[in-house]
Amino acid sequence: MNAKKRIVIIGATSGIAEACARLWVQDQAVDLTLVGRDALKTEAVAADLRVRSQASTVTVMAVDFLAEDKIKETVDLLCLKQPVDIVLIAHGTLPDQFAAQKDSALCKQTLEINAISPVLFAEVFVGHMEKANHGTLGIIGSVAGDRGRKSNYIYGAAKGLVARYAQGLQHRLASSNVKVVLIKPGPTDTPMTASLKFQGLKVAPLEEVAKKIVKAMSAGQAEAYVPWKWKIIMRVIQHLPSFIFARLNI
Amino acid sequence: MTPLSSWGRLGSHAHRQIFLNDRYAIGSMIRSHQPGIAFGHGRSYGDVCLNPGGTVWKTRGLDRFISFDPVRGLLACEAGVLLRDIHGLVVSQGWMLPVTPGTQLVTVGGAIANDVHGKNHHRYGSFGDHVLKLRLLRTDGEIIDCGPDQRSEWFGATLGGLGLTGLVTEATIQLRKIEGAWLQSETIPYKSLEHFFELAAASEEDWEHTVSWIDCMDRGQGRGLFMRANHIKSAFDEPKNRQRKMPFSPPVSLINGLSLRPLNWSYYHLHRLKAKKAQVHYKPFFYPLDHVLEWNRLYGPKGFYQYQSVVPLEYGRDSIRAMLQAIARSGEGSFLAVLKTFGDRRSTGLLSFPGPGVTLALDFPNRNDRTHRLLERLDAVVRDQGGRIYPAKDARMPRDLFESGYPKLNEFLNYRDAGISSALSRRLMGS
Lengths: 250, 431
Fold this sequence. Notes:
The structure holds two protein chains of two kinds.
Chain A: E1 5-10, H1 15-27, E2 30-36, H2 39-52, E3 57-62, H3 68-80, E4 86-89, H4 97-102, H5 104-132, E5 136-140, H6 153-172, E6 179-185, H7 194-198, H8 206-219, E7 223-226, H9 229-239, H10 242-245
Chain B: E1 2-4, E2 13-19, H1 26-32, E3 36-39, E4 55-58, E5 65-69, E6 74-78, H2 83-90, E7 95-96, H3 108-113, H4 121-124, E8 131-137, E9 143-146, H5 152-158, E10 167-174, E11 176-177, E12 182-190, H6 193-203, E13 209-214, E14 224-231, E15 244-245, H7 257-274, E16 277-281, H8 282-286, E17 292-293, E18 304-311, H9 316-330, E19 338-342, E20 357-365, H10 369-384, E21 388-389, H11 399-405, H12 409-413, H13 423-429
Parallel strand pairs in B: 2-4, 3-4, 15-17
Antiparallel strand pairs in B: 1-2, 5-6, 6-10, 7-11, 8-9, 8-10, 12-14, 12-16, 13-14, 13-19, 18-20, 18-21, 19-20
Helix pairs in contact in B: 9-10
């Protein structure tokens, strides 16, 4: 009998992470570890997944996402027993850009939680994966990281760092069996985008986005825009000459 | 502020939408954004879930299961879970919700707040009859866990309480056992209301589900199709069904004076000719419109009114005939006309709609004054016969008719939450 697939999700209470987890347990019984900042909230997600798949094992770990020693300890522990098959690093916050410009603490926190923390997690996981020569690491970037825009460049800069970092990992692991998948969602219907939805912005349905992420990860795709149209939109935005770009209110 | 409308699409008004997701943060979210009203999946037709210019608390993010006991059929979940998702989980394990309305695309919270009913009212009562426990969060932060034998006064006020007693955040539901996902059904054409009432009376004993479609374009004669069904021992698989979608809203209602007569005529004769016994999967039987997403767009940009009333059985035939004649005289018409007898049982909820009698559900494309005049004539029949109208589908009933139809209203008002207000509550209760 094959052992259950081992999946670890960092930032498991994020809307995208939870939706992906539902798809994974629905597909087959898995051995899933949910890592979150808040034990109570993460446990609520875990209870739901246990109901959805009684044959799966779902465990919860709470950890401080900015403490590098705790991160290392947690990931080492997770990879100690047996290799992990899939890791999804999904945590993030979307601040109000204007507030982050005025408030240095918020600016720092945005950079730390969206850029530094995912890198700290990924680096330890990848070390273990490289040793085992096995596994897929998915990391959530954003279309916001493709070109700095005045409406959210602090968040965008953090996501841009994640993109560059993932690129480097892919280069390092090119000759191994380890896959690194950079996922770039457009605005998605999650709690994180509540303020965008509040302003009436159209967001992609969460379940569809999650389906595409799960598919891209199982294919080991290097980069996945979800939904796909964002690839075209962002290519256009990236290549707009600056005299036009400067006039856009985006 | 973003525009929001209910399923009837009668208007689109600006609302401040607050998205609830984290069960531990709901208290602070609703405390700091009130008065408001819960908005689930937006399948209520009228204004029960609307609060134009004010706040709605959107509950779809509260969609986690909490526990499921596959031996006893007990399911606990957050209030934003869709009935469809419950079925997705439990049907293959031999369980089903005992009572569901004509769509499974509604939230558990909405099903409780409107104490919804289905085709098996005479067997299983209303949705609330199977809720063992619910958690009510008041806008002042108080949490009230209630059920049939626990703070039952709060339970009675909240079932069918139109979302006005607090926010339902989670519920525990007793499911019913099934031996397969299929039903044995029979479709029987009827030519008159007399025939309908005979069929209904004769079927209650042996059939769990009874419902009928009535052709209200037939000059008040009352021909229609009577459908009855029972669950059977069968497979749990599901026929492949293509999900369709009404792709746009046509400039005028496609359900109109020109189309209705041929539509109803062909619907009647097509099904009369096909009338037979058949095995049918629960989804097309219970939720025939669920596979056409956004079917409400059919009625065009001005939307439509639903009108569902219940009148006592003893005057049932005369009242239904009077309503059908009023419709025939008005030149308006209805396509989704459903006629059904309720069982002889009252619901627990102080404001629950289902109860002994015969219920007629109608839909009318919104043609402003013309439609209003017709609905007022229907009101007169309901009022005369001591009947009442279903608030979950209502956008316009006069206050006196609400008060006469719901004699426990005054008792109910004691349980209202001062931080909750909807377009419906202001219209029918003054605040």
